[in-house]
Amino acid sequence: MPASSPTRRVAITGLGAVTPVGLTAPDTWSALIAGKSGIGLITRFDATGCTARIAGEVRGYDPTAERVTALYPRGAGTEPVTAAMSAKEVRKLGRFSHLGLGAALEAYADSGLDSVRDRLPAERIGVNLGVGLGGLPEIVATHETWRVGGFRKISPFFILQAAPNILAGQVAILLNCRGANFSTASACATSGHTLGESARAIRRGDADVMLAGGAEAVITPIAVGAFAQMKALSTRNDAPQKASRPYDLDRDGFVVGEGAVVFVLEEMEHARRRGARIYAELLGYGATADACHLSSLAPEAEGSRRSMQLALDDAGLEAGRVGYVSAHATSTPSGDGEEAAAIASVFAGSGDRLHVSAVKSMTGHLLGAAGALGALAAVLAIDRGVIPPTINLDSLDPACAALGLNFTAGAAVTKAVEASLANSFGFGGTNASLVFRRA
């Protein structure tokens, strides 16, 4: 194992996504910069009687479809990998794994690693794919099966469907990744943490390549009903595409979403030696706890502010060099303003150069995959020179307006971005911030 070295840098060489606005990373990005909403009435169950009947569902996704050209992670002449799973494997695994496998295979194919796998030690390739709530639909369904039919009716695959780490394990099996294998669970900061901790593993020499990201699929009566009972969800059921409206004066709660986003992270020189396409560098990571409240940000978003500052310090980057913040902003009455105030504090004096936007306005809140989706926006803003918008921002909350931030309302902005920052925060008071820079 190489010794840990401060010169080990982290490149982003592969991207994959399955989201409410696109079944691939390019399709997701195209929808985001077009300001397209993926939110609609719930179809995955009968939501009659629930105060919130809308969600950001992934529609039209077939986990058995060939998403990539044939991959040979075990070398030429071995069995190729072309689909996320066979029809038999679909029955073994939960929906979050279905979505996550599709995103992971896309990211791996996008990285080009497969063409050089014959000379890459599998033991130097790790996986950290997180999930916030795990196989909740399968847990609920299996309980009902047991209640009606007894023990003999319980599927022998139930544990594989529900366990949070099975996605990471199945990715490792398919892609022959024999390095460290983890599944982080930190609510809505989950995939921000998977990216940050995976970058640290590469920096300290534990791995040369990491597949990192998150997945979530909990559009179920239990989850939607529970969030609704907390008064956390938008009840704008008559206008689903207008329901998620971060920073807007009339925002009334978030919209539950589902999906998966996966990155391939690679040691910079390792990537350059093989001629990889590099989207950006993951330069800094900050992680903090509010130690204040289980479901609300700390006063003045103190923990969120510290996570951003720690990420900038880790990156060795002055705040003024950041051109875009991909905000956590979920469309809740209190959370958006608190985070915005923290951004304004960290980036004081940068208002004329800084853009802020909230992609959840289009996708809803992907929970365990939200951090990686926000990071995708931050990375592609650097790579493509376009900042995605915050849609539905029709009447800016005066408290947010007073901060002097540009919330990129309504339409994407073409702008050269040298560096960006992505936030993700979760229940329990957990925070993650990531800083990216043009490589």
3D architecture notes:
The chain has helices at residues 25-34, 87-92, 95-111, 136-149, 158-162, 166-175, 190-203, 221-229, 268-273, 302-315, 335-346, 360-363, 370-384, 398-401; strands at 10-18, 40-41, 54-55, 66-71, 81-83, 125-131, 181-182, 209-216, 259-267, 280-289, 322-326, 355-357, 386-387, 413-414, 419-426, 430-437. It is globular and about 60 Å long. The relative contact order is 0.18. It folds into two domains: 10-280, Peroxisomal Thiolase, Chain A, domain 1; 284-437, Thiolase/Chalcone synthase (Peroxisomal Thiolase, Chain A, domain 1), CATH 3.40.47.10. The mean pLDDT is 95. The strands form four sheets. The chain has a ten-stranded mixed β-sheet, with helices on both faces. It has a two-stranded antiparallel sheet with strand order 2-3. It has 14 helices and 16 strands. The two termini are 25 Å apart. Helix 3 (95-111) runs parallel beside helix 6 (166-175), helix 7 packs across helix 13 and helix 10 (302-315) runs parallel beside helix 11. With 439 residues, the protein is of the alpha/beta class.
